[in-house]
Amino acid sequence: MTQVHRKDDRPEGTFHIPLGFASWDVNRVTLGIAGASVLGFLYLPIVVLMIFSFNSNPITRLPLTEWTLKWYDTAFSNEVLLIALANSVIVGAGAVAICLVIGVPTALALDRYEFPGKAVLRRFVILPLTLPGLITGVSMLAFFNMMGVSLSLATVLIGHGTALTAIVVTNVFARLQRYDRRIEEASADLGAGPLRTFWYVTLPNIRSTLIGSSLIAFTLSFDEIPVTFFLTGRDNTLPMYIWSTVRRGITPEINAIGSIIIAVSICLLLVAVFIMRGEDRRSGPRRARQAK
Amino acid sequence: MSPIVRLENVTKRFAGNVLAVDDVSLDVRRGEFITLLGESGCGKTTTLRMIGGFETPTSGRIYLGDRDITALPPYRRRVNTVFQDYALFPHMSVEANVGYGLKIARASRSEIAATVAETLRMVGLEDKSRQLPHQLSGGQKQRVALARALVRKPEVLLLDEPLSALDAKLRAAMRVELKHLHEQLGLTFIFVTHDQTEALVMSDRIIVMHEGRLVQDGTPTALYDRPASPYVAGFIGASNMFPARVVAVNGGDIVARLRGSDVRCRANGRTFREGSDAIICVRPSKVAILEDEASLPEGFSVVRGVVRDCLFHGDSYRVEVDIREAEPFMVDVKLPDDVSHAVLPVPGSSIAVAVNPAVVTAFLAEEAW
Amino acid sequence: MSEASRDYGRRRALGFAALFTGPALWWATVLLAPYALMFAISFYSKQFPFMIPDFQFGNYIKLFSENQYYTVLLRSLKVAFFVSCLAFALAYPLSYFLVFIVRRPRLRLFLYVATIIPLWVSYLLRAYTWKTILGTEGILNSFLILVGLTDEPVQLFLYNQFAMIVTMTYIYIPFMVMPLYASLEKIPRSLIEASKDCGVGNLKTFLRITLPLTVPGILVGFTFTFCLSTGDFIAPQLVGGPYSNMVANVVATQFGIANNWPLGSAFAMILLFIVLGIVTLSDKFERTGRLNVG
Hints:
heterotrimer, A: mainly alpha, 71% helix
């Protein structure tokens, strides 16, 4: 960190760079440049990928040649790639379904009931997110192998479902902790049993969180390699296809499909974050449950 | 007539062995406006929640009419609740909120629409039916909560501090409105509050709770005039409360000595012994400044002291008299019509206060605070 | 206990069973059983091409006695450490800039979101782009030739530990920014102003106030980046070259072509213990740290 130079420290008439800063300060500028460089570092590769997806030179190198859409054309006429894309969508959708069916009841149980082993369960379900994906991958491979299950898209789907359920559990749990539980009491008070209360009151109030965390889970599944790598049979998902292609060499076709994936993921994620934030703002934090 | 709600030796112990409600028995008569009053943590809300079915008693029974409802879940009880902070369904319109109970009861669409419209008219919100709860003001939310609970035509309406989130002016207006609604509908209201004014204004009967126990059960006037314990006396209305020594016992009357002043008071069934400690309690509004010692009515006592301060209270002055106790002895002086001519005691001057034995309550020292 | 509270307890228990039996079975089958099985397999012995159920520590002993294996272990830890340090060196100024220099809250939020968005965006593609940047025929080399800094493509950029560390730093930086940003944002501005009012200089204020208060965030950031990079096997394979095998690569190989699952499981267990150990430790330190700060 540089030495302090505050504006009022300087004698009259010192050289002053008119950059339009409210208070010209070496620290601010140094940090500003540093911050901007790191952001640049984060986005440079993404920008590079996108630029070269439109560049006609089959080798990814400077200088840029002509502007073209042909790599997008090749990508979308590549049947293997399209099948892999379809597989990824199937796996993603199936994984999201598992995440919801398993994740929501788990979050509800953690939020509403006291039971032995609860603290352990809480740590346990997020293990697939904490541990390297590969550990979940190889252990499930060993398990399926022992059970005599042959590897296929179905095993990949189960693997993704298991690894990503934690996303739904943590988000829904956080939402349940924040929302006003007394609206459920009000529903019971007005004659609704537990199922109808869940359907009419709880579900509508956690809906955005469900949609948001599903989108995140889908995006992650769509990008997953470590688990897929061990659990897939002959069918490839899109990342596996890309992975096997890029290990051999670089093709601008991958730049094209990659640009699309990145653009779509960013959109999905922004939507997810936006929806979930909105829900918490609408129905504010619940009061501490009091026992008067 | 048999009580509509009956609590028999109800006790609630929460996890961690916290005793929230301690052996409470209570009969609520049909059509009564009854208030559970106490400081926060006294067990009043827990008691209400047990009647509503949100908590189950650790021991004891609860009856609704002749039916034992102790173990019934909330959705099987003909009791509805107006929650503190309303607990409106944030994702439903006012109309849907109010109609929810009917939808659950599988009423027909037309029936729901008619009842909802009628109920909203009753609480004066017919023009808000399409709005969402977050678009409403506090008072409007309060009415929606009320309408939602009433639409099921419950036998008993439970109200958990329904006015506490409103500002003072609105709160005062809603008190009257609730009271009228109660008279108009003829329902049984069980009301929970920590606000003694609210309780005194609205209730037919008040149950004072303290540390999980029922400490007094009576009409507002009975509570005010004949508090059952120093706690109730201190909790409801302003009180002069001082430790004193019993110097004479004379049939139903006793004389207690308070810093040199002898105060005559009624024993009210308590057994005092000469030389024992007592606590005497008297309302500032029921004593008067003695202008002329000769005019002291027969049997009245005199408390002497020095004027410490004189505080303007709108239609009266509160004179604080220093009697060499930690707290001053308070006297409320009603102002004459022409305030400018009022002659008020000057701080620092000596003063005498006349005390009617009939308005003094004496407690045994063991009944402590 | 009264009949009523027994009834109530029974109702709660029934509700819980209805809600949670399915998920509990699911968790037990697809998560608990596989982890347990892998733990068991790590003690099996190998008689090519079969594995024999057994209970012996041969696999673990092998990992710590054979040069090729413990080198990989040490290399993994070394690389993970460098990645964490580099990520920290880059992430701290960025977070500091976002929290203390960017004044408009909306702009700050936007920049923060922009920083962590890459976190969720295609891991594989982000690793892959570095290959296109650092390669012999890649963007960096062609740029250097274009501006005349070199005539021959520099071979040093790709397929070595340097490339691996750069790529992994790039991939895991957002995990460092998140906790640092959160802990910096929690520092009350008044504290820093108070320190400056007392005549303490910026640098001293930073070292005495800001830095100590962000220690919990730093710990969490290091934990994230360290654990993630130890367990990575994609980036090393993509940009790492011949001497960049990491623990995860060995596990992948043993479960793949080498087909020695017991050894692979043992290595996976080591990885698991390293990660869980670090997570537990940092959790503990973070908590005591929080107590000290008050």
